[in-house]
Amino acid sequence: MTDPEQQLAYEGPGALIDRAGDTLSDAFIDRLRGMSAASQREAGDTGGGLLPTGGPRPAAAVREEIAAHIARVREQGYTVIENVIPPERVTAIRDDVVAAVDAIGAEWAALGDPSWKDCPPGAPPGVSQMAHLLSLAPYFGDERMLGVARGLLDPHVRIAQCEAVGGTMRPPNDDRPHFRAWHSDWPHDLTAGAHSGAIAQPFPDATMALSTVWYLNDASPQTGGTWVVPHSHRDPRNPRGILDPIDESAPIPGEVQITAPAGSVYVQDTRCWHSVAANPGPITRVGVVVIYAPWWLNLEFSRGQTGFAGANTARMPRAAFAQLPPSVQALVRHRAEGEADEIADAKWFVSAASQLKQRPPDNSHVRIEPRN
Ligand SMILES: O=C(O)CCC(=O)C(=O)O
Fold it and tell me: What is the pTM of this model?
């Protein structure tokens, strides 16, 4: 980091944009650029094509799409981003994921560990499943996916969990239309286990993390598409809530089943009630779950080396980390062997920048209205 004294010289909003690093949300960047343009009486936004880091900003149409997804998650609890994995890559990646599931299973069997349910709190963590998913992982940094995560959580997001081994591989020919397993996801999964942490009910009305399901087959009622209850993310009850009279294994009025082409990503507020579905179709349904979290969410829970190994503390080996694109490295750097977490420095800049703003002559114009 450079000398803080040097960084404290105020040079106007344009300089803040240039020096902010990738620490501000798009809405904030727009505001700063607007201020900069106004103060320089410039006709247009000449630098609008770049993020503060100098990387390309999503095009206007992509920014619009991101905003629509964010609005949907806020309103109904979930959205689907289509075509994240290019259609011509889906089959090969699906085969890789199936092979990875076998490899991970074999590794766990060789460890001879007890079930994660019997692991003591603080048990040593395992290896991130992402290390076995290197053909899929680059898409975890997709600009629309990251735009949605950053817009809902914080410019600094991390991947908390990545699971291919779990409930998302659905065997074929399972014709149980009424099968449900309703739950909300970590950190709002009330039965996630003593050493995974769960927010206590009633959940605060805030989006704290996003669960995503990466569909490697078309999702539909015929292939075990995810079940979800729209608007449930803001309901104080929970299908697994100890005092809530809800049967987590029965259909719920208003439920819908997701339909989306292979290569799409289902994105939901972790509070949203959802369920895996039985897969009546003739081929295995393959999906991978990734949880995106803001930098401030505590990820220091371990469930041992196996099972839900998605678990937040799972390590990213150096060799696997080196094969990830920078956009994904930024999401898992906190677990990468031999890497330092850069988030603290970036956040220092944001707080320093707020000290540099130009101040009005007084605060007589400031009004706070009570809100419900
Ligand atoms: O695979 C799905 O459709 C849903 C996955 C799910 O419920 C979960 O992993 O929490």
Answer: 0.86
